Amino acid sequence: MVVVTTSPRTVGATARLLGVTTRTLHHWDAIGLVCPSERSPGGYRLYSAAEVARAHRVLVYRELGVPLDDIAGLLDAPTADALSTLREQRAELEARIHRLRGMADAVDRLIEARESGILLPAEDQVAIFGEGWEPTWVEQARERWGETPQWAQYAERVADRTPEDWRKISDDLSALHTDLAAALRDGVTPGSPEADTLAERHRASLAVYFDCTHAMHVCLARTYRTEPGYTDFYDSLAPGLTRWLCAVIDANARANGIDPAAATWS
After folding, report:
1. Backbone dihedral region of 133: left (phi > 0), alpha (psi from -120 to 50 degrees) or beta?
2. Is 188:180 a contact under the CB 8 Å cutoff?
3. I want to staple 38 with a disulfide (CB 3.0 to 4.6 A). Which of 46, 84, 190, 256 is the partner?
């Protein structure tokens, strides 16, 4: 709360009292917003109690978001006009609050996505992704990659996804798995145009979560060969699918200038 005395105050004292700079007060004086009416014997500006009170009201309006050009009119307007302007300003503030709440909700979803990996209850995950889905896989992925830029991308991309979005992703992935298994049974050769197309579809299925380069694709394929969970999953679709898919991914990477043996996570 500002305490106003009857003694005129210098620019510096008034600035300290209001918590503004002397430059601010000089500017307000220059535009006719708050003009000191008195001068010291040395010619320095002095603010009366009424002018300090007016300056304080300027701060209140400025805090409300009223443009500086409009504040003078508010201070000098008849009561009815001032009330009308303030009501308009209040409506704008309500709209701003609504936008800020929406932004806060979005940040909350992003935080939750960063922490949990997917904003779906475990039972909904199984319902959407199938009985073979293990909700713990997302937690394992967060523990492994939670500090990486790719996990940050993942969280940003999943934060606003609805169950319908996830169903579409799941359906597309199921179609890809069906086509991979069929290609293996049909004898599609790694490095062939058909195999390269399937490799790109597989890479795109990862890109819905993070930007996946050909080198990253190769690195992920290595985990398919070394981690039983991945191997069991792909081989359950078709015997030998894990080995064949890894060969397809390696051949496609090679065609895009990546040596699979030297590929790194980049």
Report:
1. beta
2. no
3. 46
Question: What gap in Å lies between CA 160 and CA 147, rounded to an integer?
Answer: 21
98: tokens are 């609504």
Backbone dihedral angles phi then psi of residue 64, each to the nearest 5 degrees: -75, -10
Residue range 115-172, pLDDT digits in tens = 455 545 556 545 655 555 555 556 656 666 556 677 777 777 776 777 788 788 888 9
Phi, psi for 198 (deg, rounded to 5): -65, -40
What residue type is assigned to position 241 of the chain?
A: L
Q: Long-range pairs for 181-184 at CB < 8 Å and ≥24 separation? A: 181/237, 181/238, 181/241, 184/238, 184/240, 184/241, 184/244
- 254 to 181, 187, 210, 248: CA distances (angstroms): 22, 20, 21, 10
Residue 91 identity (one-letter amino acid): A
